[in-house]
Amino acid sequence: MRRPPAPSRAALTALLLAPACALAACSGASSSSVPAPADSAAQTSADGAAPVSGALTVFAASSLKESFEEIGAALTEKNPGLTITYDFQGSQDLVSDLANGAEADVLATADERSMASATEQSLVAEPSEFATNRLALIVPPGNPGGITGLDPSLAGKDLVVCADAVPCGNATNKLEEALGIALSPASEEQRVTDVRAKVESGEADAGIVYKTDAAASGSASDEVTIPDGGVVNHYPLAVASAASNPSAARAFVDFVHGSEGQAILAEHGFGAPGQ
């Protein structure tokens, strides 16, 4: 095998059992501390939640870029006084940055392993799963390399994957193990979006990304059907323990878990929690 097997999911989910209702309860408690506009102490946003304002920093896995930007736009439309700044990187880098003192209000990772690390370091509190994702194989438009799957058609071709520490790289390890294959990548990237970019530019003949990245790529690449081997990435998010705007952070988390946030995620190809 290209890489050693990843830790079992059961060992990583022990810290992710907080129900979504706990987050809602937290949001309700914190929202009462947000000052109401001067013209109405009882004013609420369109969905009935108390309005939030100020600056909010969201650390999120790079595969969440398109969906979270749309979610953020929907949330700020309901809360005009709220401004959101994003940092989209590999999940492992986000956790490392938090551990080294970077300031964020929300952390969303592409796997449970990264979030478990953040929780063990007391960087976040009460993480909860909000989406799932699966792997896909993409090739440049027209498939000039004639790739037919994770098979001998990859021989002598430039396959790009995520590095071991990256959630999509860990998922690729699991896929290799599940399918009983050993891949020989030409390069290993620190972000799944970098894998996608190399395929879209024609620098690579094929790349293993998430289904959501294949969808986001659109006509810039083609998808080649591969078995998923039962490999699913579970995406958790949480309020950062040192959040400077905890009320807005909880509002963001609640919105992601809510019907509108879940609909946006589904439109971008994510599966619902537990799928």
TrEMBL record:
SUPFAM superfamilies: Periplasmic binding protein-like II. Residues 1-24 form the signal peptide. Keywords: Metal-binding, Signal. It holds the Pfam family SBP_bac_11. It comes from the Bacteria. InterPro entries: ModA, ModA/WtpA. The keyword Signal applies. PROSITE patterns: PROKAR_LIPOPROTEIN. Gene3D superfamilies: Periplasmic binding protein-like II. Belongs to the bacterial solute-binding protein ModA family. This is Molybdate transport system substrate-binding protein. It comes from Actinomyces denticolens.
